[in-house]
Amino acid sequence: MDQSIGSKVKNATKWSVITEIAAKLISPFSNMVLARLLTPEAFGVVATVTMITSFADMFTDAGFQKYLIQHEFSDDDDRRKSTTVAFWTNLAISLLLWIIIGVNKDWIANIVGNPGLGDVILIACFSLPLTSFSSIQMALFKRDFDFKTLFFVRLISIAVPIVVTIPLAFITHSYWALIIGTITMNFVNAVVLTIKSDWKPNLYFSLNKLREMLSFSCWTLVEQISIWLTSYIGTFIVGALLTTYYVGLYKTSMTTVNQIIALITSATTPVLFSALSRVQDDNEVFEDIFYKFQRGVGLFVFPIGAGIYLYRALVTRILLGSQWGEAASFIGLWGFMSSLTIVFSHYSSEVYRAKGKPRLSFFVQCAHLIFLVPALIISGKYGFEALYITRSLARIQMILINLVVMWAIFKITPAKQILNVLPEMIATIGMVGVSLLLKQIGNSILWEFISIFICAVSYFAIIMLFKRERQELFGIIWPYIDKAKKTIQKNSRGC
Known about the structure:
Layout: H1 3-37, H2 40-61, H3 64-70, H4 76-103, H5 105-111, H6 118-124, H7 127-143, H8 147-157, H9 160-172, H10 176-196, H11 207-241, H12 244-278, H13 283-310, H14 312-319, H15 328-354, H16 358-380, H17 384-393, H18 395-410, H19 414-420, H20 422-439, H21 445-463, H22 467-494
Helix pairs in contact: 1-8, 1-9, 1-12, 2-4, 2-7, 2-11, 2-12, 3-7, 4-7, 4-11, 5-6, 7-10, 8-10, 9-10, 11-12, 11-16, 12-13, 12-15, 13-15, 13-20, 14-15, 15-16, 15-17, 15-18, 16-17, 16-18, 20-21
């Protein structure tokens, strides 16, 4: 791997990981408090509102963020002009969509199963023009591997729930706390990113530039729509077949798991896409980066996913509280399946986009939807349990499709991918065995915490038996140990 790219990727990954660690220290606290202040019904309302805002938000971005990261510009002037065109297009689309939603707010509220909440949807969609301000600047920072700046921006925004959302939840005990908190966070992001960015919008526009960008962005947009459908079709079906209570249970369960695993994925995915985009024409380096990221992510995601399943009741009790007990089984199964999906499917989409082929991801998502929609409709008729089991296990089909596409188009075979993370899979199986034995001894909360610690030790003990994993693990940890030693030595000499 080129030393310049390699050092940028390592530095970007470091800051991205630090960002997610900081976020995960604050976000769980906020969610734990909010889950105890608000009911599943309140979270259900917000889930359906978020479904609408996230759908509209895709059109405001129009795929330009991915274009600005992936595209190789001829010079700085070309990049600046493309950025400006993307910004004004985003802003115009967001304002148009907000007007359309405002005119049809009551009809939309009825469609998503929340009649009478048209005004709530309209106010929540104020986030659309706000995110159009921040998405372009964020793309430029990611393109330049400047995740250090994004760390400070994220640190400011994740403090919003503590300052705004939680106090409002104490006062109102309603979904308004979540909605106003989200709007405030998007406003803070827009202001801070605009101030920190070297690029500033000016009065320039070019239809030729727009047409040039749309050739890539149109496929990225339809890909994002297909991903949105995959993510939210379950929410829509639960709302149609069951109640708002189960919508809240369904979406909050998924969000809880995603927030835990996002400590790894949110830190690595944007860096991976930026890195692969920069070496898209060098297949050897491209594959090397992909395999290293897949292996590094698998090292942590596999045991986390298995741990969520094994200790699902404890995870639910700590993060959500006693009123969410019915969500425990879904949280456990979704956590386990998420670990497999991330390693063998999630990063395939980054490969498609980095190679300038977002249409592949679109076709994969469509193939998954053709299977997923009837499966959810049929299982939903048998109740919430049947639906969430079906939703979780359906991800196996998505994994198989991506493995086939990666093999057929990029010659990255399923066997290579499995062998790449085989030590991590073996260590996870060993950890599961240890956990099952420990569960025979006791089931108190204290013992569960002790057994989690023993499981973690056993996992890394098995991993250390593999030379490659041992070297890579020390490669991650040793720089920090070495830095700490030098600091101690320096302080000792000072004394």
